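Need C-alpha coordinates for this chain, all 145 residues.
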Amino acid sequence: MDPLTAALPLAAARRTIETALAHAESLQVAGVGIAIVDAGANLLAFVRTDDCFLGAIDLAQRKALTAVRFRASTGSLGALSGDGPLRGIEHSHGGLVTFGGGEPLVDGNGRCVGAIGVSGGSVDEDTAIARHCRDRFHATLLTTR
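Here are the C-alpha coordinates for all 145 residues:
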Protein backbone atom coordinates (compact mmCIF):
# COMPACT_ATOMS: atom_id res chain seq x y z
CA MET A 1 0.00 0.00 0.00
CA ASP A 2 1.19 3.50 -0.81
CA PRO A 3 2.19 5.16 2.52
CA LEU A 4 0.51 8.37 1.37
CA THR A 5 -2.82 6.60 0.85
CA ALA A 6 -5.19 6.44 3.80
CA ALA A 7 -5.69 2.90 5.13
CA LEU A 8 -9.40 3.66 5.32
CA PRO A 9 -10.39 5.87 2.40
CA LEU A 10 -13.37 8.18 2.80
CA ALA A 11 -14.99 6.42 -0.18
CA ALA A 12 -14.94 3.10 1.72
CA ALA A 13 -16.40 4.78 4.81
CA ARG A 14 -19.21 6.28 2.74
CA ARG A 15 -19.99 2.93 1.10
CA THR A 16 -20.03 1.28 4.51
CA ILE A 17 -22.51 3.88 5.75
CA GLU A 18 -24.69 3.28 2.68
CA THR A 19 -24.55 -0.47 3.39
CA ALA A 20 -25.58 0.19 7.01
CA LEU A 21 -28.46 2.45 5.98
CA ALA A 22 -29.74 -0.11 3.49
CA HIS A 23 -29.56 -2.91 6.05
CA ALA A 24 -31.29 -0.77 8.69
CA GLU A 25 -34.08 -0.11 6.20
CA SER A 26 -34.36 -3.82 5.39
CA LEU A 27 -34.73 -4.53 9.13
CA GLN A 28 -37.25 -1.67 9.41
CA VAL A 29 -35.11 0.21 11.93
CA ALA A 30 -36.27 3.80 11.51
CA GLY A 31 -33.83 5.95 13.45
CA VAL A 32 -30.12 5.15 13.43
CA GLY A 33 -26.82 6.91 13.87
CA ILE A 34 -23.79 5.40 12.10
CA ALA A 35 -20.20 6.36 12.85
CA ILE A 36 -17.02 5.27 11.09
CA VAL A 37 -13.64 5.87 12.72
CA ASP A 38 -10.18 5.22 11.31
CA ALA A 39 -7.47 3.09 12.94
CA GLY A 40 -6.37 6.07 15.02
CA ALA A 41 -9.85 6.43 16.53
CA ASN A 42 -10.57 9.61 14.54
CA LEU A 43 -14.10 10.16 13.31
CA LEU A 44 -14.05 9.77 9.52
CA ALA A 45 -17.76 9.74 8.66
CA PHE A 46 -21.07 10.02 10.47
CA VAL A 47 -24.72 10.05 9.49
CA ARG A 48 -27.99 9.96 11.33
CA THR A 49 -31.43 9.40 9.92
CA ASP A 50 -34.27 11.82 10.46
CA ASP A 51 -35.89 9.73 13.21
CA CYS A 52 -32.67 9.16 15.15
CA PHE A 53 -32.88 10.04 18.85
CA LEU A 54 -30.15 12.38 20.06
CA GLY A 55 -28.54 9.88 22.44
CA ALA A 56 -27.78 7.59 19.52
CA ILE A 57 -25.30 10.14 18.12
CA ASP A 58 -22.90 9.78 21.04
CA LEU A 59 -23.53 6.04 21.40
CA ALA A 60 -22.73 5.29 17.74
CA GLN A 61 -19.45 7.19 18.00
CA ARG A 62 -18.52 5.55 21.31
CA LYS A 63 -19.29 2.11 19.92
CA ALA A 64 -16.97 2.74 16.97
CA LEU A 65 -14.25 4.12 19.27
CA THR A 66 -14.53 1.15 21.62
CA ALA A 67 -14.35 -1.36 18.74
CA VAL A 68 -11.25 0.22 17.18
CA ARG A 69 -9.40 0.74 20.47
CA PHE A 70 -9.72 -2.92 21.40
CA ARG A 71 -10.02 -4.32 17.86
CA ALA A 72 -13.01 -6.28 19.05
CA SER A 73 -16.77 -6.13 18.82
CA THR A 74 -18.40 -4.16 21.60
CA GLY A 75 -20.68 -7.09 22.36
CA SER A 76 -17.74 -9.44 22.94
CA LEU A 77 -16.14 -6.88 25.28
CA GLY A 78 -19.41 -6.73 27.16
CA ALA A 79 -19.31 -10.48 27.70
CA LEU A 80 -15.92 -10.04 29.37
CA SER A 81 -16.84 -7.02 31.50
CA GLY A 82 -19.33 -6.93 34.40
CA ASP A 83 -18.08 -9.70 36.68
CA GLY A 84 -15.73 -11.07 34.00
CA PRO A 85 -11.98 -10.73 33.49
CA LEU A 86 -12.37 -7.18 32.13
CA ARG A 87 -14.46 -5.99 35.08
CA GLY A 88 -14.88 -2.22 35.00
CA ILE A 89 -13.40 -1.72 31.52
CA GLU A 90 -16.44 0.31 30.48
CA HIS A 91 -15.24 3.06 32.83
CA SER A 92 -11.91 3.49 31.05
CA HIS A 93 -11.08 5.76 28.09
CA GLY A 94 -13.71 8.30 29.09
CA GLY A 95 -16.48 5.68 28.91
CA LEU A 96 -16.61 2.68 26.64
CA VAL A 97 -19.68 0.95 25.26
CA THR A 98 -19.79 -2.73 26.15
CA PHE A 99 -22.95 -3.83 24.40
CA GLY A 100 -23.52 -4.67 20.74
CA GLY A 101 -23.35 -2.32 17.79
CA GLY A 102 -19.63 -1.68 17.36
CA GLU A 103 -17.43 -3.76 15.07
CA PRO A 104 -13.83 -3.44 13.89
CA LEU A 105 -13.26 -3.08 10.14
CA VAL A 106 -10.44 -5.29 8.87
CA ASP A 107 -8.66 -5.11 5.50
CA GLY A 108 -7.57 -8.06 3.35
CA ASN A 109 -4.27 -8.30 5.25
CA GLY A 110 -6.00 -8.74 8.59
CA ARG A 111 -5.23 -5.19 9.76
CA CYS A 112 -7.83 -3.25 11.69
CA VAL A 113 -8.21 -0.07 9.63
CA GLY A 114 -11.17 1.37 11.50
CA ALA A 115 -14.51 0.54 13.05
CA ILE A 116 -18.24 1.09 12.69
CA GLY A 117 -20.66 2.03 15.45
CA VAL A 118 -24.42 1.80 15.05
CA SER A 119 -27.05 3.03 17.49
CA GLY A 120 -30.76 3.75 17.41
CA GLY A 121 -32.38 0.33 17.21
CA SER A 122 -32.41 -2.40 19.80
CA VAL A 123 -29.03 -3.85 20.76
CA ASP A 124 -29.79 -6.86 18.54
CA GLU A 125 -30.67 -4.60 15.60
CA ASP A 126 -27.60 -2.40 16.06
CA THR A 127 -25.44 -5.53 16.27
CA ALA A 128 -26.98 -7.01 13.13
CA ILE A 129 -26.38 -3.82 11.14
CA ALA A 130 -22.77 -3.42 12.32
CA ARG A 131 -21.95 -7.09 11.69
CA HIS A 132 -23.52 -6.91 8.24
CA CYS A 133 -21.14 -4.05 7.39
CA ARG A 134 -18.16 -5.78 9.01
CA ASP A 135 -18.79 -8.94 7.00
CA ARG A 136 -18.95 -6.99 3.73
CA PHE A 137 -16.16 -4.54 4.47
CA HIS A 138 -13.35 -6.28 2.58
CA ALA A 139 -15.42 -6.28 -0.63
CA THR A 140 -16.36 -2.63 0.01
CA LEU A 141 -12.71 -1.71 0.45
CA LEU A 142 -11.73 -3.45 -2.79
CA THR A 143 -14.39 -1.64 -4.84
CA THR A 144 -13.23 1.79 -3.65
CA ARG A 145 -9.53 1.48 -4.51
